[in-house]
Design brief:
CATH class of the largest domain: Alpha Beta
Shape: globular
Number of helices: 14
Strand content: 15-25%
Helix content: 40-55%
Order of helices and strands: EHHEHEHHEHEHEHHEEHHHEHEEEH
CATH superfamily of the largest domain: Type I PLP-dependent aspartate aminotransferase-like (Major domain)
CATH architecture of the largest domain: 3-Layer(aba) Sandwich
CATH topology of the largest domain: Aspartate Aminotransferase, domain 2
Oligomer: single chain
Strand order of the largest sheet: 2-8-7-6-5-3-4
Length: about 350
């Protein structure tokens, strides 16, 4: 479906608008006070999410950042470190929230290609015996946004989970787009999340719901996260109104993610044709395309915006394009034509 305002918005999949089915479900939602555990639509959503990811319980929250922060509060211990990739969302894009909220600091480790090896977890745990701070947990990001949305293969998640278990560390998965990863890999999200202790995913990205994320884990940890959510002022009241849209997202928006992935690959091919060496199309398997700005035409973001096509920057060096349900084949053709035209002007 094309963007409703006539522009092609590739800044993020968070710009998606709710479907007619979502709007109808929101209008008809049965609601109650979620702080009392009495919203039946929220309760249904949490049960669905937990079952789909193979966890005991789930907690519906306003955002992916809140879900990540709740997980790190529950898993971390003040005065310790939590391992993560050096380009992880929890490290780079959450405003140093972990230090403030959980009283822990993050220890970034190299994540070339979007993952880090199990050996890095083992080595970091051993370092704690040599004057480095003790560790309390590890975190992975699957798929890894800055690396073209690269999904962690199941064997890599399993290996890191096993190494962390030997070291006595629980593992959190920032799975904001875990459904994209599962679809791209051809495995169920339950399998992909089995080696981790907690996992969150967003409804407001590829699943196109207007708001919300969910944190899944053991009942004990989710109960603790619910208490932390209250401390952060994140308690819901009649949240079934928005939870209804999230349910529709789970029921109707997963299979179509393959369309987003195919369009992202075509976009990567267009970038590689116009600016050889800017992107390796074979590395694009989900819905995100990242390219070094120095490999593209000067002012590429502004020049595309002047043509009604929006993209964004994830840092001063990297341009990002994200496909989603509000970008159709006509929008993609328009974007590809604009890229080719700009490349010929330089």
């Amino acid at each position: 479906m094309a963007s409703p305002d006539g522009r092609v918005d590739l800044r993020s999949d968070t710009v998606t608008t709710p479907t007619p089915e979502m709007r109808a479900a929101m209008a008809a939602a049965e609601v109650g006070d979620d702080e009392y555990g009495e919203d039946p639509t929220v309760n249904r959503l949490e049960s669905m999410a937990a079952a789909l990811l193979g966890k005991e319980a789930a907690l519906y929250v306003t955002s992916g950042t809140m879900a990540n922060q709740l997980a790190l509060c529950v898993l971390g211990r003040p005065g310790t470190e939590i391992l993560c990739g050096e380009r992880a969302h929890v490290y780079r894009y959450e405003h140093a929230a972990t230090a403030r909220n959980a009283g822990v600091q993050l220890r970034p480790i190299p994540d070339p290609g979007g993952t880090f090896p199990a050996a890095a977890v083992t080595q970091a745990a051993q370092d704690a015996g040599h004057h480095l701070p003790p560790l309390s947990a590890a975190a992975i990001e699957n798929p890894h946004m800055p690396e073209n949305g690269h999904p962690w293969p199941l064997e890599a998640v399993t290996a890191v989970g096993a190494a962390a278990a030997v070291a006595g560390l629980p593992v959190h998965c920032d799975g904001a787009r875990i459904w994209n990863a599962a679809v791209a890999l051809g495995v169920s999200p339950r399998e992909l999340c089995a080696p981790v202790d907690t996992v969150m995913f967003c409804f407001s990205k590829g699943l196109a719901a207007p708001i919300g994320s969910v944190l899944c884990g053991t009942r004990v940890r989710i109960d603790a996260a619910r208490a932390e959510r209250r401390r952060l002022g994140g308690g819901w009241r009649q949240a079934g109104v928005v939870a209804a849209a999230a349910i529709v997202g789970l029921e109707t928006m997963v299979e179509r993610l393959t369309d987003d992935h195919a369009r992202a690959r075509r976009l990567a091919e267009a970038l590689a044709t116009s600016w050889p060496g800017s992107v390796e199309p074979a590395d694009v398997t989900t819905n995100i395309v990242c390219a070094p700005v120095e490999r593209l035409s000067t002012g590429i973001v502004e020049r595309l915006a002047a043509l009604g096509i929006r993209c964004g920057m994830i840092d001063a060096r990297t341009v990002r394009f994200v496909t989603h349900k509000d970008v159709d084949d006509d929008d993609l053709a328009r974007t590809v034509a604009a890229l080719h035209a700009i490349s010929k002007e330089t």
